[in-house]
Structures
1.
Amino acid sequence: MRFRTVLALFATALAFCATGTAWSADKASKQAEVRKATAAALEKFYKAEPKLKSEVAKAPGYAVFTSFGMSFLIGGSGGSGIAHDKATKKDTFMSMAQASAGVQAGIAQNDVLLVFKTEKALKDFVDKGWEVGAGATVSGGAGGKSAGGGGGEEFVNDAIYYTLTKRGLEIGGAVAGTKFWKDKDLN
């Protein structure tokens, strides 16, 4: 009887180790996927507005996100990204979500770039997350190009907030809020 118990405990421990290894590989592949998407998004920002490259180079840090969302009167979107601290050269994996309500309809994939003007703004963003309000939007894009309100800049919490619409069409006016936070699973 004791042999079976020991064998069962050993099998259980082996299963947990295998699951941990699979999770690590899965975590690493998810991190690589986020890194690849954010690097591509950052290059799109540089191509759309070349001055951003020098702004990012001078800043104490920046964050880049990609998101996908749908709306019809009420809407929502979600995404992931990385906040980069230049002083420590540390990347923090982050998540974002947006909810909206109003006269709106659409589907869109967006890129968001935050260029922090102070180290405190970057630290607060990473440690506490952010909640940002927004207004009306009219934008469209296809094949990596954007038009309308989906491409622009806004100054928020000691950072400049840029957006690009990658694909889709959004039209209407809505009250919206966006929340950013650390991704516990990827850090």
2.
Amino acid sequence: MRDIRQVTCITKNPSGGKDDMGSCEVGFYTVEGGLLTMTDADGVPLRDSNNGERITHRLAPGESEKAIASRLTLKIIRTSRGDEMAGFSRRIDYPKWGGA
């Protein structure tokens, strides 16, 4: 049985307002023989929606599997939302300026 690992990545930082806690997403992955494969919670490999290939990354010596899994999770989430230019689809909260 594969060892399914979990990573949490931040998808939106808090804006500073008391009601905005930000948001995060959870990703799942396995590592076998230095190959990181993104999976669902049951360990089924995820596939790229463009070409149908498994979403994998060959880990280089000293490379952090958590960091790579976090980046891939963020890419998967953004792709599934259809917002490759993340952040441009949300309202921008500007700080209040003094004066007029």
3.
Amino acid sequence: MGSKKQALLFVPLIIGILTCIFALIGYFIIIFIGIPVRYNMPPVFRAAGLIIIIFGFSFAGWLFKYRSPIQIVMSTYLTMRNAIDKSKPAKARSRTELLILKGPQRHVRHPLYFAVILLFIGWWLLLDYTLILLIALLFFIWFTLVVIRFEEQELKSLYGEEYEAYTRSVPMIFPSIRSRWRK
């Protein structure tokens, strides 16, 4: 139970700290490069932002049908802990989560990251603040260059050839209706 409490404190704390860091970086980019803070987007873009936000929340809700938010936080915590400890992916074999390849995972390997990026883009369009778009870009870079690399090594160690075949068939962050996992 201790690790569940730690996970519920640690994961949101890390995400909050990263969001603050990315916001500061984005703010400095805006200042130093001279990017406009707002683009005065027309109402059609703002309406599109609202639709994208609704879709992003719906997509996340679809994900939560197959994996509860607590399961996701616990898994994220274990992955973060292994990354911080610089544990070899082989240590992940002691984990007991099932590999879920239904629902949104049929179309994208990392549906939560897709939903997060989608929500940031939707909020950027709705609120018209360039900083939100820069935060989305920095999270995308963070997800693809740092988190997913370690996470996928761990998943390959946990699930072996089944996960390898899955990675060859399903895109990483942006879903594809054509490339569905057929299991």
4.
Amino acid sequence: MACWSSTIFSPGRTPDLNEWLNEFELRYPWPVGEAQFLNPEIIAQRAGAFVVLAAESFDVRLELSRDAYIDYVLTETNVSAAVRAGTPIDSIRPWCEETIAAIWPDPGKTTREILFPSYFVCAKPKHRG
């Protein structure tokens, strides 16, 4: 039996952060790569030699301050790609702090519940014969 669990690596979202994240992703686009989006349904379709026994999608919920959230967002691959392309990292944090302040004014004291999409899949090999 094999089991997979994953938190989909993303900046994490809340309804009021979606517009800000869209602007962030336009400003610092995701690099083109070979990564493929996965979820329980896609894994079940591509299981090949496996039979999916159980699967569930859920959100991991974390309480983060604004500063902690920005720290996390700055670890994303789109930020790394922007830095490799010549954008100074020292210019990205101030942009984040200035633009997010309209929807999340308190940098250190107020926390928000941030949702990180996740899933769990458990499968076993198909029997041959």
